[in-house]
Amino acid sequence: MADVTPEPEGPEDDELKRKFREALERKKLAQTEANAGGRGKNSSKIHGAHGPVGGKRSFRRKSG
């Protein structure tokens, strides 16, 4: 396999990295804003996953 040596960074690479960082910051900001609305008692998207069961189950042995 051939060794790949990175080329020296130029102004284009810096500009590209800056654009990616800005896009990542916008994405993180959008995610935090979307999650911020759910603060409070019922902030989860899943409701009643571990709530009380409707009726208690009873197990009986089979006779005969």
Notes on the structure:
- The chain is elongated, with a radius of gyration of 28 Å.
- It has 1 helix and no strands.
- It has one helix at 11-36.
- The chain starts with 10 loop residues before the first helix and ends in a 28-residue tail after the last helix.
- It is an all-alpha fold and 64 residues long.
- The mean pLDDT is 76.
Q: What is the count of DSSP helices, taking H or I runs of 4+ residues? A: 1
Mean pLDDT, as a whole number? 76
Profile the largest sheet.
none
Q: How helical, in percent, are the residues?
A: 40-55%
Gyration radius, in Å: 28 Å
Secondary-structure-based class equals: mainly alpha
Binned strand content? under 5%
Number of strands: 0
Principal-axes geometry comes out as elongated
What string gives the helices and strands in order? H
Unreliable runs, pLDDT <50, ≥5 residues?
A: none
Distance between the termini: 74 Å
Summarize the structure.
It comes from Planobispora longispora. With about 60 residues, this protein is mostly helical.
